[in-house]
Amino acid sequence: MINQFRNLSPINLVLLVAFTFFMRIVIFINLPDKLDFEFLEPYAKLLLQAPTTSSLSPLLNIVCAAFIVIIQAIIFNTVINKHNLLTKHTYLPALLYVVGSSLFLQFLIISPPLICNFILIWVMDKLLKIGKSSNAIMLMFDIGMLIALGTLIYFPFIVLLVMLWLSLLLYRSFNWREWISGFVGFLTIFFFIAVFYYWTDNLNQFFNIWTPLVNKFPSVLKINYNDYIVLAPVTIIMVLASLQLRENFFRSFISTRKAFQMLFFMFLAAIVSFYTKPDFRVYHFLLCVPPGAVLLAYYFCNAKKRWFYESLFAVLIISIQYFLFV
């Protein structure tokens, strides 16, 4: 499977679609009676009327989620290849994106983080352009607006604001206009929301939007570790990828080194952002899939021993399917 996706053969697109549905066999077999969630955060519903997934049958919900993942995987693959983050152009990023989006049962349905991943991939693309741009002011402004749009869908997306400044630290010398332009872009979206709340005499509700930001970071997490054993092979692959990345670090282009550092911080930001959602669900960690999939793809793109990396991938897929079924 890995060897097949190491090239850009068009047949891989067909295989990718088939593989995506294969990874969802368990939920098709044990179809839920009802699936429901809101597309937008409550503070955005005053502006836009979005349908709830209760209007979709469970089967249609799951099928739509699968096609969303396929589209995202193809876009994601294009972004990674365009910025030359791997040693050659492959379909491995798309494959590993699908794998990452299938880790848990909650990942297999339409959810706010799944929708936000469209924006996250777009943000990732723009962040990777920072070092190549002579003037990043408008680029940062666009990224700020995108993060604001993501926040309308799923509030924890706001934590990715830190990526504005972390990316500037990595890629560029200090320019105060670039440092504030991203935040101005973010504020632009919420300025219009504030005006709307003011017109409807609900300004106090607007201020309540930001209360999750002062949540205390939980000192104790209630985790059922049996549910996360599936992450063991993922962790092993990420460790191997990190070792490989370290080995090739100084032989890589400077832009590639900085890109992986930026993606690492994005991965951490996506994890930490759960604290802004006291009732967060496992599907929150779909936000970790794009940056995490790059690292997984890096390992499989550079691994030398075919029997080992194919076996490792097989173990990963078998473990995912096993823990989805049990």
Written as H for each helix and E for each strand, in order along the chain, the element string is: HHHHHHHHHHHHHH
Fraction of residues in helix: 55-70%
Strand composition percent: under 5%
Radius of gyration: 20 Å
Low-pLDDT ranges? none
Q: What would the average pLDDT be, to the nearest integer?
A: 85
Number of helices: 14
- DSSP strand count: 0
> Could you describe the largest sheet, including whether it forms a barrel?
none
Secondary-structure-based class equals mainly alpha
Distance N terminus to C terminus? 25 Å
Shape category = globular
Question: Overview of this structure, please?
Answer:
This protein is an all-alpha fold. It is 61% helix and 0% strand. The chain has helices spanning 2-5, 11-22, 25-29, 58-82, 92-100, 112-127, 137-153, 162-171, 176-199, 203-208, 231-248, 254-272, 289-302, 306-325. The two termini are 25 Å apart.
Label this structure with key terms.
single chain; 326 residues; mainly alpha; 14 helices; globular
